[in-house]
Amino acid sequence: MQALVVVAHPCDDSFTHAAAERAVAGLRAGGHVVEVVDLYAIGFRVAMSPEERQAYHGEMPLVDEQTREHARLVQWADCLVFVYPTWWSGLPAILKGWLERVMVPGVAFVFDERNGKVRPGLRTVRRLVGISSYGSPRWTVRLINDNGRRTISRALRMACGLRTRTKWLGLYGIDTASEPVRREFLDRVEATMGRLR
Amino acid sequence: MNVLVVHCHPDPASFISAVRDRVLAGLERAGRVVRVTDLYAEGFDPCFDADDRRSHLEPGTAPALQRHADDLRWCDTLVLVYPTWWSGQPAMLKGWIDRVWANGVAWTLPAGSSRVRPLLFNVRRIVVVTTHGSSKLVNALQGEGGKRVVTRALRSLCSRRCRTAWVAMYGVDTSSADDRSKFLDRVERRLAKL
User: Fold this and answer.
1) B138's torsion region: left (phi>0), alpha (psi -120 to 50) or beta?
2) What would the pLDDT profile of B7-44 be if each residue is shown by its tens digit?
3) Does this complex have an ipTM over 0.85?
4) In angstroms, rounded to a whole number, what is the distance separating the alpha carbons of residues B22 and B38?
5) Contact of A1 with A34, CB cutoff 8 Å
6) Which residues, numbered 55 to 84 in chain A, qualify as contacts with chain B under a Cβ-Cβ cut-off of 8 Å?
7) Residue ranges per domain, chain A?
């Protein structure tokens, strides 16, 4: 497969970056081709700009070279992997902004002006993977509805094909997780990604 | 009643901006004291950066965010006005939450505990006024993530009796001018009745 790994954490020495590295190592060991987009490292702009909003329903909603490049990567990939910390039960703003600025009409979906129907644009994506750390324990995450996960495994999933499968790897209660628990999670990330087909 | 209205849309001529105007009209009719934060107009920086991350366990926000933190502690009613994108808050608004709802402002973590304790006891009501491009059914299938972020995650940091209200227009992409004008009237009525 051709995998695009999108990473969102402000610190290079974060657990999120460690998980992303292991995910990439696993994918490569499994014989997959990997491209990585590290949103903070490239200084990705978080919020959609007024120009982007105005262009959104026009001919070319991608207004700069960076988002065009990312859109090309999305169309190249048949596996999308998101690695991020869950904040306030959702995606970090920078990752949410990436969805808003890159997953635009013509890339993630096609908006039919005549009948208002939205058709999926990511039919070539076979796999959606989320890898996230949570401050809260698992039962709290469940109770609050894990909205970041739903954004990916439902909202973004709807933009994919019927056969797209989603995979979720979460480390819960990370603030109190011991070293062995963290290590075990990283091993699991690498092993799972290596087995991905 | 002290009301903080947080408005988020990149285009000042958008439908959401018309919605915001009717929110303010409704609040004025009811004689509320209102503060407005327009995130795009003030050029708010929504990027939770490495400095924010490093100071995450120290109480307080960066000096640039002080006014936002003060507003949040001042209000008893919080009104969020935004378009729902990818089933949730726009990144700009999510960034405001990530950065302003900080340690010492919205929550505290007692030593040795893994459970966050709320601090925004002053907030007794959260009202969301939003538009969804897709239908109510599609949003239900997607799990209404944006709604749950507010009614579950944010609400848990407010007063124990905090009530939430959801004033939403679904299917705005396919709506008629008449539907939209009806929604605007509903918004004003609802906000005047708080």
Assistant:
1) alpha
2) 999 999 999 999 999 999 999 999 999 999 999 999 99
3) yes
4) 15
5) no
6) none
7) 2-195
d(C-alpha B190, C-alpha B170), whole Å: 17
Distance from CA of A119 to the nearest CA of B (A): 12
Q: Indicate the pLDDT class of residue A118, thresholds 50, 70 and 90.
A: confident
Task: Quote the tokens at residue B166.
Answer: 């959801």
Superfamily of domain A2-195, CATH level 4: Flavodoxin domain (3.40.50.360)
Only one residue has tokens 């009796």, namely B161
pLDDT in the model for residue B116: 87
B152 contact A CB<8A: yes
Instruction: Find the length of chain B.
Output: 194
In whole angstroms, give the CA distance from residue B68 to residue B38. 11
In chain B, the domains with their CATH numbers are: 2-192 (3.40.50.360)
pLDDT at res. A175: 86
Residue from the list A10, A111, A156 with its beta carbon closest to the beta carbon of B53? A10
